[in-house]
Specification:
The structure is a homodimer of 497-residue chains. By secondary structure, the first copy, chain A, is an alpha/beta fold. Chain A has two domains: 327 residues, Alpha-Beta Barrel (TIM Barrel); 61 residues, no CATH class. Chain A has 20 helices and 13 strands. A four-stranded parallel sheet of chain A has the order 1-5-8-9. A four-stranded parallel sheet of chain A has the order 10-11-12-13. Chain A has a three-stranded antiparallel sheet with strand order 3-2-4. In chain A, a hairpin with a 6-residue loop joins strand 2 and strand 3. Chain A starts with a helix and ends with a helix. Chains A and B meet through helix 1, helix 9, helix 13, helix 14 and helix 15 of A and helix 1, helix 9, helix 13, helix 14 and helix 15 of B. Chains A, B: It catalyses: adenosine + H2O + H(+) = inosine + NH4(+). Chains A, B: Belongs to the metallo-dependent hydrolases superfamily. Adenosine and AMP deaminases family. ADGF subfamily. Chains A, B: It is found in: Secreted. Chains A, B: This is Adenosine deaminase.
Chain lengths: 497, 497
């Protein structure tokens, strides 16, 4: 009898292994099907891109697998301040730096450049400085003669201080006022309100330094330069359009400031014809009375009339939880006729008025949403956003520094990427946290947030998204040039082999 | 001409206000439509439930709005250890405590009761204690005579130590070994691996204390008692089924341990006939060779044969990132014929083998998923899970303590709730972090994670889900009794008014 038993057993075992194979096949198919839902997975890579992809993915997988087994030593599980310089030495970072990244669609006027740059600005002639009595803060102003008022101690020329004291020490002291970076962020920035307080103080403190017209224009010119250096080809700047001033006592209004922006943009494009320029999103502070908002809209319309191609549209800024919800401005915003690019859902407070700004932004016909951090809790809105092709301007590092999320792996971007939401990566105020103007955000998103499987297709799509969802007029030109640069980039990676 | 202008203007203004109203209406409709997608929103509340709901929602909104404007002082933005005792005094906590919460479907054998209870166990006769030389750890064993081995210092009777030294101080020292709670969790538990190390040591250290058969049975009896006190009516316990021992030198195997569980369950049901009992999920550790797994399955089958109604099914436990991925056990698990209740996706590592345990769990036909923390990054699987009615056993406090997420508002549960995923709230190992056996998890989910709008309907649905997705045989009886208790609960809230 036993030969029959053996045959039977063999058959059963064969059938078993058959079932096992079928299940494993099903597993593969399911994972594959889901991967195809990710951002970028409709892209077909060329033969050379496939080779470049393997180089990139080898590096990515090696780093992530190291982190998986050694989480204590993995950069991306620490605070951004701890690893931001360290990662710059990695091959992957360098690749991402050299990668054409498309456009920056979410960046704020005086938050783009870091403290070393701002410190340099304090070497400009005619800058006066006043320290608070306890040295805890500092005021600036440009003037021909010693200013009066706004100072409890004494206004002194920056130049004189440097001549009469230790300039190195003085610079080190000053630099601290131009950055949020500290060695112990968890202790200093105990909660979201606290870090926003420091963040707002940066803008208030540096206001009179930056709004000196020559400095304003220089800062913006150098911002464009930094973007270009970081392989960004186009910029949409959110600006509060503050009044500028000069040494002659002239005060320039918001429309003048917009004109300044336009003039500098044109100069920059002339100096660097490979850069595709910039547009403005007028984005004044949101915590205002309705009358003020009406005035904002008037200003925006005036600018639109004067420079219809230069003004992309309108937004409202500053800490969303403390500001007015959009719904309070409904009639004014609805009938404004302006293109809207609202910040919305930059909050953790699910079901509050801030959270519901997401509904208002969508209903008001926003073209893109700034942050959209809370959108992941809104299944209906997520569908609407996809259907209406409203891009999400995601700023991961900003959300970490400003304490919406600690562990980048919990950032909702992971979910948005997994569902091919119309995501655009941006950097918000990279200078204030000493990030590079865009590369760091790509690095963190790619290495910390996206799936271990997410590859060159995703990177390319994210760059392309920033062009598709921009308000640039002739997008085909933008995309064509992008493709040329992309091929060069791929070639440069292949040389690494 | 101007009367005509006025008429025209009036008409325009009227039309404007009309548009405004329409937009606001659309807004309301959209928010309403999305709310209807949430967990519990198909439930129609009775007139009395509506009144109770208003009482609950007044309390909830007041607390959340306070937090919104005073985040620095809001309990739920701190670490659980900081607020766990404080919230117990709130009205809402007391309501949730008195609320019938259904079943606990995800709890581990010796993680259910807190350090005060465990300390009491060390008063049992015949307990011997051995401290490490540096006092950094402690071993226990029950024995008639002084044990030999397993001790670098000296085995001493607990009773003798208490008699010869300061018992209060000794108890305080001992208690620390029975809890993860510390005053500075962020400093002690720097990363996930570190906290898991402490967590595992708790189980290793207390092993010989708990596996003394009389203690094991007492602990389990008292666990059922604590559940009943917390208004839980049924329990599915995940157990490693360790060998038990007694003073006579007998060692009982896993099947015997299962029998112990069954006997105590029956005794408890006799003592408290209003409790609906318990079932076992045999859940040994996952970091084993395939041969060991085969043996696990053999044991599970044996138990199933002996007590088909008492064994709910099979699972694998301990730190998922460090364990074997499910796919390595595919053929054995696929053909086991057991009901499966897998832990899966208790990880932040998107796209790794741990993350993909979610696919394997689903493909292997798991009835529920333990944690499913990472599921939010898997759009296809989310659909599958909903279609196949696979419940997600979410343990928010566990995920905070074990460092998957810091800010509870970023827990993926918020997304699961928003999409009416089949969620069941549970508590994992509440004793180890000194949480109440279920109420704290309801409190944190309701006040910290769910929408400000989420109300009694959600609470009721979550309790009902724990019954629907249980493996209890006669669910209609369970649900009928639940409804009776629910009505009493509603009555008690109404009396508060």
């Amino acid at each position: 009898m036993w030969p029959l038993t053996i045959i039977l057993l063999t058959n059963i075992l064969l059938a078993m292994s058959q079932i096992h194979k079928i299940v494993l096949k099903e597993r593969e198919t399911l994972i594959e099907r889901e991967l195809k839902m990710m951002v970028g997975y409709s892209i077909e890579l060329s033969a050379t891109e496939l080779v470049a992809n393997e180089i990139i993915m080898d590096l990515k997988r090696k780093e992530i697998d190291y982190g998986f087994w050694n989480p204590k030593y993995y950069h991306l599980l620490k605070h951004f301040f701890e690893y931001k310089e360290l990662v710059k030495d990695t091959k992957l970072y360098k690749i991402l730096k050299s990668m054409p990244k498309g456009a920056v669609l979410h960046g704020h006027d005086t938050g783009m450049l870091g403290p070393d740059y701002v410190l340099e600005l304090t070497y400009c002639d005619d800058l006066w400085i006043c320290f608070k009595e306890d040295q805890s803060d500092v005021n600036f102003v440009f003037a021909k003669h010693r200013p009066t008022g706004w100072c409890a101690t004494k206004w002194e020329r920056a130049m004189d201080i440097r001549r009469t004291t230790n300039a190195t020490e003085f610079d080190a002291k000053l630099r601290k006022f131009f950055t949020l970076v500290v060695v112990n962020p968890q202790e200093v920035y105990t909660d979201l309100d606290t870090v926003w307080d420091y963040f707002m103080k940066y803008f208030i403190r540096t206001g009179p330094l930056f709004t000196y017209k020559p400095v304003w224009e220089k800062y913006y010119y150098d911002t464009l330069f930094a973007l270009r250096e970081d392989n960004v080809m186009y910029f949409e700047i959110r600006t509060v359009l503050p009044p500028l001033y000069d040494l002659e006592g002239n005060i320039y209004n918001s429309v003048d400031t917009a004109k300044s922006y336009k003039r500098v943009t044109e100069k920059f494009k002339k100096d660097y014809p490979d850069f595709f320029g910039a547009k403005l999103i007028y984005a004044p502070v949101r915590s205002v009375a309705r009358e003020t908002l009406k005035n904002y809209i008037k200003v925006a319309k005036e600018i639109h009339k004067l420079m219809p191609d230069f003004l992309a549209g309108f937004d409202l800024v500053s800490q969303e939880d403390l500001g007015k919800p959009l719904k309070e401005f409904y009639p004014d915003l609805a009938k404004s006729g302006l293109n809207l690019y609202f910040h919305a859902g930059e909050t953790n407070w699910y079901g509050t008025s801030t959270d519901e700004n997401l509904f208002d932004a969508v209903l008001l016909g926003t073209k893109r949403i700034g942050h959209a951090f809370a959108l992941v809790k809104h299944p209906l809105l997520m569908k609407e956003v996809k259907k209406r092709k409203i891009a999400l301007e995601v700023n991961v590092i900003s959300n970490v520094v400003l304490k919406l999320v600690d562990d980048v792996r919990n950032h909702p971007l992971a979910t948005y990427l997994s569902q091919n939401m119309p995501v655009v990566l941006s950097s918000d105020d990279p200078g204030v946290w000493e990030a590079e103007i865009l590369t760091h955000d790509f690095y963190v998103a790619f290495m910390g947030v996206s799936s271990r499987h997410a590859d060159l297709k995703m990177l390319k799509q994210l760059a392309l998204n920033s062009l598709y969802y921009s308000s640039y007029g002739e997008k085909h030109k933008l995309v064509r040039e992008f493709q040329i640069r992309w091929m060069k980039f791929i070639g440069s990676i292949l040389k690494m082999k």
